[in-house]
Amino acid sequence: MNQALSRSNSAQGALFTDLDGVTAEILLNAASQRQFPAGATLFHQGDAPSQLFQVGTGLVRLTRVNPEGEQTTLRFMGPGDLVGCVAVFRQFPFPATATASKPTTVLSWGAAQILDLLRRYPTVSANALDTVGDRAREMVDRLAEMTDKSVEARVASVLLRLVSQVGRNGSTGLEIGKPVTRKDVSEMAGVSYFTVSRILGDWQRQGLVRLGRARIVALDPRRLAQVAT
């Protein structure tokens, strides 16, 4: 891949939406491109928000450990997603740990650097505000799921979120595969692994999903969406 094409692909994602060419170039030139092997940590829960990351290629898993020491998968971040944005923009410690689930490249900006760019370029600031708003809405939706929805609806909602975050087209449906596991699904839904396995088994018999050794295929996303409501 030539350098121009690589730079063109990098200038995409949450912060670059609707930017004119000059502003996009300024934002891109201010960033550093970094590579993380699978399993490497971008930042730990509780770290100072010193860097903002935007995923270029690969996948990042966000996890949080509660006071009892239990780890929970919160979400997966793919190309174009900003990682750690709320903490950086509001300047409080990272509330979760970000780990590369597969070899991942990112653009990174220092916190002071990106905050200065937000002040200087209103469109970049508007993009940042949109992203923070999307994350807030997602958290409200997830809280509503935990308090208002049945277990089956919560699992269906998680599967649909994973389809949008990490799903890929397969021969018979939308596949959720490695590095996502059923344990991730159970943590994101707030239910036990056994319960998720039972529900997925029932849905396989009903033709909603097909299960493989390391994948879940959503055969009928429309029916899953009906279950999720």
UniProtKB/TrEMBL annotation:
Record-annotated Cyclic nucleotide-binding domain positions: 15-100
Entry-linked InterPro entries: cNMP-bd_dom, cNMP-bd_dom_sf, Env_Response_Regulators, HTH_CRP, RmlC-like_jellyroll, WH_DNA-bd_sf
Domain HTH crp-type: 149-222
UniProt keywords, alphabetically: DNA-binding, Transcription, Transcription regulation
Cross-referenced Gene3D superfamilies: Jelly Rolls (2.60.120.10)
Protein name (database record): Crp/Fnr family transcriptional regulator
Organism of provenance: Methylorubrum rhodesianum
